[in-house]
Amino acid sequence: MRSVDATELAELLKGSDVTLLDVREQWEREIASIPAAKAIPMGEVSNRLGELEPGSTTVVMCHHGNRSAMVARFLEQHGFRDVINLDGGIDGWSEHVDPSVPRY
Known about the structure:
By secondary structure, the chain is α/β, with parallel strands linked by helices. The protein is 35% helix and 19% strand. The chain has helices spanning 6-15, 26-31, 66-77, 89-96; strands at residues 2-4, 18-22, 38-39, 57-61, 82-86. It is globular, with a radius of gyration of 12 Å.
């Protein structure tokens, strides 16, 4: 599993076909989110794998990067070929890319 920081993610989102998967809970997404993200809470990922494309690049994000790392490993174990974890999560995004996104 590869990892990127928020600045690298911003570049990825500009230039390529990437699925950004937000595995935080709904209440967290209501506080802070990235509009391009597909929301599937961590506890629902295994039941909703059909909503994701195993052949595409998938960047997984959460609040700081711990839950997303677990989900990224899970996706790799289920045949996803190009999975990337967002180190620092939405918090890093707010701090380094878009300060208008609230920190919590």
